[in-house]
Amino acid sequence: MALQRQDKGSQMSEAQNTQVADEARPIRLRDALRRARIEAADRTGVVVDLRDAEVARLEILSEALDPLFAQVPEQIDLFDRGISQGETPRLWIDVVAHVTMGRDKRIYRFVQDTRFGRTVIAESHDVEAIVGAVTDYVARRMIEREHALTATSVPAPPAVEEEQPRRRGRLWPFVLGFIVGALALFGLALYASLQSL
């Protein structure tokens, strides 16, 4: 009987310790959903449907990127994030950069299409490493946009206005030569007609 009381007492103290630990550290539903998705993606990736596992992993990465894209100003329309579910699922960051899964379906590969071919920007099993690489990429693209806007907003030099008077100066000798040539032809025609009379 004393042993049973001791077991009940130890069970109660363990339950109280667990309850105190749970109260001290609240479990967020988002974290639980993320863990459940990772577990489901792991099971799915191993068992049958690798494609669904890829999409699930890309969705996890997309959710991890939400805070980054929430900070991008609305007037900047460089980025169009979304998952395409074609033959190879991709998480598009913008028109030329996307994240795809590696051959083992567990490694994230962040790539950019360039005129020289596809360039791997980052490759990792860790979501946070890819989030860091995408963050750096977004920052670089925003700076490139600022430079492009600054370069195109500089007014053109007034050299265009100076060329017009020069053209008129070149046009007068041509017009004068045309008039002289026409008068000469008219004079020759008149001379020939007078000769024939």
Extended strand count: 5
Rounded to an integer in angstroms, the radius of gyration calculated over CA atoms is 38 Å
What are the segments in which pLDDT stays under 50 over at least 5 consecutive residues? none
Spatial gap, N to C terminus: 156 Å
In DSSP terms (H or I, runs of 4 or more residues), the helix count works out at: 5
What does this structure look like?
α2 (29-46) runs antiparallel to α3 and α3 crosses α4. The protein has one domain (2-152). Strands 1-2-3-4-5 form a five-stranded antiparallel beta sheet. It is built from five helices and five strands. The N and C termini lie far apart (156 Å). The protein is rod-shaped and about 120 Å long. The protein has helices spanning 2-24, 29-46, 50-70, 127-152, 159-196; strands spanning 79-84, 90-94, 97-101, 108-114, 117-124. A hairpin with a 2-residue loop joins β2 (90-94) and β3. With 197 residues, it is an alpha+beta fold. The longest helix is centred in the last third of the chain and has 38 residues, at 159-196. The mean pLDDT is 78.
